User: Fold this.
Amino acid sequence: MAHEQDAAHGGWDEARPTARLLLADGTLIEGDGLGAVGAAAGELCFNTAMTGYEEILTDPSYAGQIITFTFPHIGNVGVNDDDVETVNMAGASGVRGAVFAADVTSPSNWRATRDLDAWLKARGIVAIAGVDTRALTALIREKGMPNAVIAHAPDGRFDDAAIKAALDGFAGLEGQDLVPLVGATQRYGWDEAGWTWPGAYGARPEGVEPKRVVAVDYGLKRNILRMLTTAGCEVTVLPATATAEEVLALDPDGVFLSNGPGDPAATGAYAVPMIQGVLEKKIPTFGICLGHQMLALAVGASTKKMRQGHHGANHPVKDLTTGKVEITSMNHGFAVDRDSLPASARETHVSLFDGSNCGIELTDRPAFSVQHHPEASPGPQDSHYLFHRFVGMMDERKA
Ligand SMILES: NC(=O)CC[C@H](N)C(=O)O
Assistant:
């Protein structure tokens, strides 16, 4: 985003940057502001996906975070209503801010309905462009994900006290339950009508007796609902605080535990008793990301904070059962500690980047979960088979 002085300076105007990124260690990065005006604090991570910035920016699991995009050209295809991954928060987003290398140019794509700058503004997301994102990513890899403040002042006059207060007021993600910010507040039924686009998922296969699935919403992504529906499920979504009694009252064939933001250990307080109640009844259970971490906590395992986390769409994961490697979509900053897994939980998937746990299945109950995102969006479709595994588990129980 060029500002007026650019022409006079023949390019990048260093005289008055309109955005700042201030890291907790005092590192100050300046650039061109776009999106919402003001200051926002969060944990700074990097995402290496080469496509799907709109899905990433609307993934509720990013609540409390600022995303550095390593792909340099963000915004080229604009934004549209179909690629929004947020189900519950019309007009808002969980993500606090975004960091781009190149300035955002006018969109060029037949699906675009809006340009990224106006869209970021409308969603309250502060962004900075013109940043050396390679150097920033190297810094995060070396030192871990820092707390940071991102600020945008169109006139280049920043309120230093407000920036400092925002940074001081952000305690980091550890110990934070952010599910109430993004999860459903009431029960709703998922209806695929209207959520399809040419060639996409969304319609339940014909002639298939639908499986009744209760999806517990910790910050559910829309494509998970599409994938469940396409696999033959009829989905009822319940808020994260639903009790086992409330879930079981719907007589589900299966229970799905969604992705979501924040520290899993802080969310376990209410999630764990519900999951334990469902497992006791041997209801087929499938969890993704935060849902995976919740299933692990429910059987007595623990989670830990990662240094740089996994955020991208090209993460190799090995399925230990088949030996196959799947390229996956990832977005997590906490991981299940494999050494804490009880004898009743078998590790099924591992990350080939750092060997961290990426999946478990219970040996005494029909339940499994993965750390990566089989629904992708954005990302490769290698892990779609997991939705069919869930349906197969429900079929088996019925038979
Ligand atoms: N995508 C997710 O569900 C993320 C889970 C959790 N908030 C983490 O960062 O590890």
